[in-house]
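Re: that backbone. Tokens:
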């Protein structure tokens, strides 16, 4: 939020208008707590520079190591707390009550007793091991500015906005840091979420396959039209379990523990052993002969950049995993002296342990002979140096940052290595949802407990600053928007089904526009034939065809009524299986004399992990892209619910093949004129895990996706995909992507749009200004390229899902059966930004857990939407998601962009792409690589991503 505030001045944003008027009640509460000073204090902001002091005779850093690593949060806190204990220059209370962000900013009540405003102090931390000397750091404090915190009241009241923007951003940061002061120092917590999440190591739930879920809290200060507030919420994040590295690796790749044993820190007791605090048993662990190449790729992907500690010597320093080398019995390392040149022939620098012992006795540094350079294997080195002779020679050496190679057996994985959502297995994701998706009443009780335990009271830093934090959640004024009318084919018994609590029934409704008949299709089974025999498949597809007919969609069967089925033999590449399935349609087929490629291949999967590989191969590696529909084996043979399953499949199939399932009544879509308004959605996904910081500086690509409604009904969509510079938020080629989609719209509607509405997903608050400026310019440039004199009106809306605002009804009568507030509740007062046109809309029903509203931020509006009109448009569009008969949480055009970006990420994130260095072909690949593959047929103009 402070980043959004800081950027306000540089953006010609649409100002906050009057709240909407449509709808009444309910009045929800939200986990936002008001902040009030007894008397707003004046504070000083200091720039803090922490620099480690290296000894003059310290050896140079090894070639290729790059600059010294940044000082981590834990060390920064230790340095600052040591400075407070030192109390240099009698700095006293202002220093003790200071708020330090663990990086480079400190805020104090009044000015420190530093006459010149800048001074450097030397701090010494204890040695991390007996072989190392104490670490020394210089702490430089430089006065940056004075802040009167009364400016926050003026800022929230919309007074002198242009003058206060920068100062308010600093003041908000000061409050954020102040309220986190106590949490930063809790040893049992892992800090995440850019310093806003605090996860308790002791509150863990096993997820299986080397994962655990930590529970904790979220905390963030934000300005609103009703004053400053702090947002508190329960929080959950998945992590790799802590424990001995070999056992963790075994768990990640699915190896079973051989027996139970004493529980180790950070995990669980093994099978047959007593329950521990999480982690894996050291005793009786499985000792594999080695890991396969595929398993190593998975370990590299999930453990890259993880922190470990060595156990073969007394050393508390954390080291960083870079990757895995050759087996320790073959991995060669060079051992020799690294002392500086010119220190004397034959003399080697004493070890840190020798230097520390000499200093303690007041003796001169000892002189020892330089050892000759020699090479040996990792196993030989550890046997010679540490008497480690029971090392498994076949296991790979672990490469640590700095070029060190060590055996797995001597490493302990530390807490805090998060699992990105895209790397969760299906089992882990299910376990996480079961734990984290708490019913509304339980989640609210958890947040109430978080507030009670928060260190905001007497004796705390906030209390010393005179800051009062309310004990009660804010009560808000919400409005319930009515649902739109959903329309199916006019000949349906229920052409406009009854919509209740965000959902409706498809049973007596026909597709609005059926796709062309499905004639050329086959089945590829990725499972042993005994688990999916032809008679069982025949029964399933018979049910599917029957359900399709009920919706006026034709799936034609071969004249001989025999399914065209291809079985994967478990050994061949899945591409070969897909090619054989395609040939069944194209060769010796009386119904396909033109040898057209399949319209669709049904893929029956036993292993969900095969999904990404099949999608990648069918879209990019077949001679022409072929649409696929994946079905899990366990779902198609369920004895109950098969009709509902088939109906859900048909929603996807009809949309993929060019049909329109349903639409929303045009009267419920204000501002969306058929044939005159273009809807755009965009998202960017970034590499996660080890791929974000590979050796050699290579960073995998980010994936940008732009989706547009390309017909006058606004129900048919097409997508454009580009690879771009890794971690870059702005869409680099938005101009060409937009131009292609606009031309598709013009071709289908026979005209140009007068207005364009862009829903942009995925921009972080700190990137708003540069992204919005650049992307708006690119959309306008695309229009000018089509016609230099054409300038349609633009509306640009950010869709934010990563926030911690929730709503709870005050009365039971205002809840649905899950305890959530009903879909359609909008809040656009009390908690919105003081200056920006935004609102929170919960358009969907909460099926499990506590529903989360989506935050919509309108940064540019040339189309003149009122609050009521934009809110109604967004709410109504949420009922038009093609593959569901219920409203969704995010406006569909942005939802589709999110889906496309995720699927395209799977196209490029193969196992081979997860190694430390990018393959040469990936480095040289054109940004249009994926799109060019999709453009080989009309595939790219379909909703293939459904």
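Recovered sequence:
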């Amino acid at each position: 939020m402070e980043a959004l505030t800081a950027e306000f001045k540089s953006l010609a944003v649409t100002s906050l208008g009057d709240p909407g008027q449509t709808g009444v009640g309910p009045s929800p509460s939200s986990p936002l707590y008001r902040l009030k000073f007894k008397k707003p204090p004046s504070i000083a902001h200091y720039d803090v520079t922490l620099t480690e002091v290296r000894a003059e005779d310290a050896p140079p850093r090894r070639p290729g190591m790059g600059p010294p690593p940044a000082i981590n949060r834990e060390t920064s806190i230790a340095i600052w707390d040591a400075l407070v204990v030192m109390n240099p220059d009698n700095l006293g209370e202002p220093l003790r009550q200071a708020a330090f962000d663990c990086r480079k900013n400190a805020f104090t009540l009044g000015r420190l007793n530093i006459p010149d405003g800048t001074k450097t102090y030397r701090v010494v931390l204890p040695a991390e091991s007996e072989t190392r000397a104490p670490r020394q750091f210089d702490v430089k404090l430089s006065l940056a500015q004075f802040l009167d915190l009364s400016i926050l009241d003026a800022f929230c009241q919309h007074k002198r906005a242009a003058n206060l923007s920068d100062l308010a951003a600093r003041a908000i940061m000061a409050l954020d840091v102040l309220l986190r002061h106590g949490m930063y120092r809790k040893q049992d917590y892992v800090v995440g979420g850019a310093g806003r999440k605090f996860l308790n190591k002791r509150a863990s739930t096993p997820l299986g396959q080397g994962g655990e879920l930590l529970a904790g809290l979220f905390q963030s200060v934000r300005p609103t039209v009703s004053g400053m507030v702090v947002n508190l919420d329960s929080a959950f994040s998945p992590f790799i379990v802590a424990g001995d590295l070999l056992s963790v690796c075994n768990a990640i790749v699915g190896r079973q523990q051989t027996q139970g044993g004493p529980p180790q820190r950070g995990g669980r007791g093994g099978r047959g052993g007593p329950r521990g605090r999480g982690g894996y048993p050291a005793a009786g662990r499985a000792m594999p002969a080695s890991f396969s190449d595929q398993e190593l790729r998975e370990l590299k992907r999930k453990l890259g950049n993880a922190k470990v500690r060595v156990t073969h010597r007394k050393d508390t320093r954390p080291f960083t995993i870079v990757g895995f080398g050759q087996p320790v019995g073959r991995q060669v390392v060079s051992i020799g002296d690294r002392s500086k040149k010119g220190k004397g022939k034959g003399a080697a620098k004493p070890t840190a342990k020798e230097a520390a012992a000499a200093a303690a006795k007041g003796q001169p540094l000892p002189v020892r002979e330089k050892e000759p350079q020699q090479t040996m294997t990792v196993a030989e080195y550890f046997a010679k140096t540490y008497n480690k002779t029971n090392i498994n020679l076949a296991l790979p050496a672990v490469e640590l940052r700095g070029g060190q190679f060590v055996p797995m057996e001597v490493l302990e994985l530390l807490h805090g290595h998060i699992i990105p959502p895209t790397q969760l297995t299906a089992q882990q994701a299910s376990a996480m949802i079961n734990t984290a998706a708490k019913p509304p009443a339980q989640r609210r009780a958890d947040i109430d407990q978080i507030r009670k335990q928060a260190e905001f009271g007497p004796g705390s830093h906030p209390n010393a600053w005179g800051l009062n934090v309310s004990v009660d959640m804010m009560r808000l004024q919400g409005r319930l928007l009515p649902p739109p009318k959903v329309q199916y084919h006019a000949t349906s018994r229920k052409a406009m089904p009854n919509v209740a609590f965000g959902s409706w029934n498809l049973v007596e409704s026909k597709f609005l526009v059926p796709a062309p008949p499905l004639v050329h299709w086959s089945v590829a089974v990725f499972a042993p034939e005994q688990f999916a025999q032809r008679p069982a498949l025949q029964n399933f597809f018979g049910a599917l065809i029957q359900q399709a007919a009920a919706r006026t969609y034709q799936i034609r069967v071969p004249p001989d009524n025999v399914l065209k089925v291809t079985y994967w033999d478990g050994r061949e590449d899945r591409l070969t299986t897909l090619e054989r399935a395609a040939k069944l349609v194209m060769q010796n087929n009386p119904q396909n004399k033109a040898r057209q490629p399949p319209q669709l291949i049904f893929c029956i999967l036993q292993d969900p992990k095969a999904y990404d590989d099949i999608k990648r191969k069918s879209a990019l590696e077949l001679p022409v892209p072929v649409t696929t529909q994946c079905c899990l084996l366990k779902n198609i043979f369920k004895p109950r619910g098969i009709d509902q399953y088939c109906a859900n499949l048909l929603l996807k199939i009809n949309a993929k093949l060019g049909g329109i399932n349903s639409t929303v009544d045009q009267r419920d879509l204000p501002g969306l004129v058929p044939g005159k308004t273009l809807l755009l959605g965009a998202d960017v996904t970034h590499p996660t895990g080890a791929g974000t910081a590979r050796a050699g500086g290579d960073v995998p690509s980010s994936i940008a996706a732009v989706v547009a409604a390309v017909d006058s009904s606004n129900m048919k969509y097409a997508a454009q995909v580009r690879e771009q510079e890794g971690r870059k938020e702005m869409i680099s080629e938005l101009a060409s992507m937009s131009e292609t989609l606009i031309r598709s719209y013009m071709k289908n509607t026979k005209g140009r749009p007068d207005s364009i509405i862009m829903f942009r997903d995925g921009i972080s608050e700190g990137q708003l200004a540069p992204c919005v400026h650049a992307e708006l310019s690119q959309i306008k440039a695309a229009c000018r390229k089509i016609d230099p004199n054409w300038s349609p009106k633009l509306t640009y809306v950010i869709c934010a899902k990563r926030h911690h605002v929730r709503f709870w009804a005050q009365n039971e009568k205002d809840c649905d059966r899950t305890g959530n507030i009903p879909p359609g509740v909008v809040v656009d007062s009390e908690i919105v930004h003081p200056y920006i046109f935004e609102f929170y809309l919960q358009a969907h029903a909460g099926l499990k857990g506590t529903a989360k509203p989506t935050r919509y931020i309108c940064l540019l509006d040339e189309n003149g939407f009122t609050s009521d009109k934009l809110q109604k448009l967004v709410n109504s569009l949420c009922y038009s998601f093609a593959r569901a008969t219920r409203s969704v949480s995010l406006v569909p055009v942005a939802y589709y962009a999110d889906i496309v970006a995720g699927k395209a990420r799977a196209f490029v994130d193969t196992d081979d792409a997860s190694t430390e260095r990018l393959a040469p072909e990936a480095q040289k690949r054109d940004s249009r690589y994926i799109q060019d593959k999709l453009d080989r047929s009309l595939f790219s103009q379909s909703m293939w991503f459904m």
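Confidence is low (pLDDT under 50) at residues 4-11, 257-286, 338-344, 912-921. Residues 514-644 form a domain with the Rossmann fold fold (CATH 3.40.50.2300).
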